[in-house]
Amino acid sequence: MTPFSTTLAQEPAGGIAGWAAGLVDTLGGPGAGLAIALENLFPPLPSEVILPLTGFAAGQGVLSLASALFWTTLGSVVGAMALYGIGALFGRERMHALWARLPLVKVSDLERTEKWFRRHGAKAVLLGRMVPIFRSLISVPAGVERMPVPLFLLLTTVGSLAGNSVLVLAGYALGDRWELVESYVGVASKAVVVLVLAAGATWLTVRLRARGAAARHRRA
Length: 220
Known about the structure:
Layout: H1 4-7, H2 15-27, H3 29-41, H4 47-59, H5 65-101, H6 107-128, H7 134-137, H8 139-144, H9 149-174, H10 179-219
Helix pairs in contact: 2-3, 2-4, 3-4, 3-5, 4-5, 4-9, 4-10, 5-9, 6-9
């Protein structure tokens, strides 16, 4: 295996990129898979850095493109299964017990969410693997709802292969300009976070107003 230090035209010097480069340099494809498995467990690790960098490494001959796609997809599946296991271990009853103790929420809200997941869970798992942040989070409700493991594995593998391939191939095609992928995908990731926060703020405002109206009605 040719080390990154002598192969890459622009060697990542530090940070997440340097860490991922070191893993791929030392372990090859399995290193890329390990980085993506950890990214699933710790979403702050950015896939938009790790995956294009892996594609760039493949373009430089550090590993083959097939190896890059295989190992990053396997890493995604392993990380997703770990989160699925956490959701399954936590279980529906514990989730309901915890939810009932939280302020400003109702058990009926959770029940509606569960009903939605039972109806759309397959699409959520498949498509969620292609969306920043949600690619990790979607595995937990799948575990809580005990989605059949073979189905979860199939959907996760297909969705991960599709999503990972886009970023790996982009890094492969862009060469030493692979960091452009991070710029564009980073904007999309921030947009997802903003939308989630806005939805959460809207929900909280509606719930607080409803609680205030109910309190005034009781006093009247």
